[in-house]
């Protein structure tokens, strides 16, 4: 049992010594004994070395896989084809991460080497860049062995690329700045300038987050001037700049004519003074609203001069607005104006109808012209009219006569009642002319038309007794 323990302890000691020995850096005192490729001549040229690498590329892949760098194989072949090898001498004590060699016809690898020769080692040096890392390889001139010396962050030239979308926009539209096309970028610093050259802001991006969205609240041209920095903080030098133009919105102007507007009259909304400072106007949108904000009329016009005529039927307070659009979709204002539509107070009138005159209540047809003035709109009016009446019977007893009225009416929509004075000439030769007391009652049947009943009583005069010379009329009145 004791002997068994001694054996186990001895075995562990041998394993530990072996591990420590293998972990130590291996000393390479001479080169050329175990060559990876067969070389003719003492010191081949780099062209010869490239030919040899092409010839043995299958073995090279096997060796790279053996070293644990199989993913570097294709980059290695692609880049050494067009790369010039640098001639150098490695000093004594130079260490290698690993070296490919051939022993007894088999490709092998040895790791953690150190050049321990008596003189510096002449080599070809070349670099392979992959995934932002620089792999430094050497090939000793006396042989074709491939050795990886070091791996460090590549010193790649930073390339700047910027795209701004859109290149023209309206105020407060989102602007996307995209620098994802940049190369070898550790950081990307963008400075934004206005038209006057004043710096407005600075934004720093990375390749993990290469996009930035911004907006501008003022019109004009804005310049984006980025610089890309690589891992070593070296700045890009290629031309790299972008701009965006923020559209200047149009300005509207609105005039309402005439100054005094009555119901039923036409108003003119004039937006012809509207302008777009950096483009053209495409349309104007008009609206008319009543005093509680209800839109009663609207109009979109796509041709200049943007003048709209509209007839307002009812009195009241109104507001008019217009908004103009430019060729880039920007909209103005809107501009607004208030106006009042007043009730019409003065009207011309035409009256016609039938009349019966006392005596035998003989029938007449009458017609009158005049005017009406509403001195208190919709409540009180004054009517002045005059015209003739013509008998509907034949004979010499009854004759045409003239009559005129001056009447004040009180309106109780849709009815009205009034009284006043009139004048009548004689309707028979045996009667006289003179003043009349006039009374009427009527009903509005539509906005400017009404039917009325009128009575006329004589106020004295020769042969003008009330019982014999009163008159009754039924007629129709049209005002305009």
Strand order of the largest sheet: 24-25-26-27-28-29-30-31
The number of strands is: 31
What are the low-pLDDT stretches, counting only 5+ consecutive residues below 50? 6-22
- Helical segment count: 5
Count of folded domains: 4
Average residue-wise pLDDT: 90
State the distance separating the first and last CA atoms: 138 Å
Please state roughly what percent of the residues sit in beta strands, choosing from under 5%, 5-15%, 15-25%, 25-35%, 35-45% or over 45%. over 45%
CATH class bucket of the largest domain? Mainly Beta
Q: What is the 3D form?
A: rod-shaped
Return the CATH architecture of the largest domain.
Answer: Beta Barrel
Q: What's the alpha carbon Rg, rounded to whole Å?
A: 55 Å
Helix content: 10-25%
| Coarse structural class | mainly beta
CATH topology name of the largest domain, in short, is: Porin
Largest sheet: 8 strands, antiparallel, barrel
What does this protein look like?
- There is one protein chain.
- The chain has 480 residues and is mainly beta.
- It folds into four domains: 26-153, no CATH class; 163-246, Immunoglobulin-like; 255-342, Sandwich (Immunoglobulin-like); 346-479, Beta Barrel (Porin).
- It is built from five helices and 31 strands.
- It has helices at 2-23, 46-55, 57-67, 73-81, 466-469, and strands spanning 26-28, 86-90, 95-103, 106-115, 121-130, 133-140, 146-153, 163-165, 168-169, 175-178, 187-193, 199-205, 211-214, 220-229, 242-246, 255-257, 261-262, 266-270, 281-290, 295-301, 307-311, 316-326, 335-342, 346-357, 362-376, 380-391, 401-412, 415-424, 434-446, 449-458, 471-479.
- The strands form six sheets. Strands 24-25-26-27-28-29-30-31 form an eight-stranded antiparallel beta barrel.
- The longest helix is centred in the first third of the chain and has 22 residues, at 2-23.
- The radius of gyration is 55 Å and the shape is rod-shaped.
